[in-house]
Amino acid sequence: MDIALSDAKAQLTDLVRRAEAGEEIVLTRHGTPVARIAPIKPVLTPAEKMARITAIRAATKAIPDDGVSAARSQDFLYDELGLPK
């Protein structure tokens, strides 16, 4: 939502409530955007951070290891003399 700075002065409390609800408000001066009122992302507790890290680690372990590694990827591209196959 865009709103003129002069109009926002009278509606600041309402605009902050809307931002708390998740809406982003852009303040304009003479039609040019100059500022933004946006919701602040919630801060995670240390326990929530660890839970996310654990979930990510568990997801990466689910990727199958088919024996191909980046260290050996050149084996598929080049022959024993180092020339492209």
UniProtKB/TrEMBL annotation:
Q: Give one Pfam family, short name only.
A: PhdYeFM_antitox
Query: Where on the tree of life does the source sit, at the highest rank?
Result: Bacteria
Query: Which Gene3D superfamilies is this protein grouped with?
Result: YefM-like domain (3.40.1620.10)
Q: Which InterPro entries match?
A: Antitoxin_Phd/YefM (IPR006442), phD-YefM_TA_antitoxins (IPR051416), YefM-like_sf (IPR036165)
Entry function: Antitoxin component of a type II toxin-antitoxin (TA) system.
**Hey, which family's this protein in?**
Belongs to the phD/YefM antitoxin family.
Q: What is this protein called?
A: Antitoxin
Name its species.
Devosia yakushimensis
